[in-house]
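Subject: Sanity check before I submit

Could someone independently write out the structure tokens for this chain? I want to compare against mine line by line before I put it in a report. The sequence has 161 residues.
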Amino acid sequence: MKIQQLDNSDYLILKEVLYHALYLPEGAVPYEKSVVDLPEIAKYVKGWGRKGDFGVKMAAEENIIGAVWGRLFTARNPGYGFVSDQIPEITMALMPGFRNQGFGTQLYRDFEKLAKESGFQKLSLSVDKANPACRFYLREGYEIIGEEGTAYTMVKSIASL
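---
Independent answer below. Compare away.
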């Protein structure tokens, strides 16, 4: 498994991983792939490579396993987990078949190091309360700071890591 920083050419990888980041309750009908083209979801990857975009991807040979990235949003155009225009909101997903094997922890921790090296002090995210990833984020030190419908907004301070 190889972890690398994301670059400006990784838009299609991010779009694929974004699809897998969308929570789907067990037994639910899968979303159409085009759901990632909706403006409220596409904004997590559209124009990838702008100032403040950063992240890491994991691959085995030519196959993407997953990615974690951060993006700054504004109060005028917030993401679901928006807290501040100085706090990147993260998106993370592993491809099916690679979950619950430790890859996510390894990938996330490399991402967190990159976030700190990039000068960020905190990270935020939005996660559905029923999503098993919620437990992962709590275990990684995120705190619930808000609730909107079925989702939590979570924040983690990385300044002292």
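---
OP: Matches mine. For the report I'm noting this point. The helical segments are 11-21, 39-42, 103-117, 133-139.
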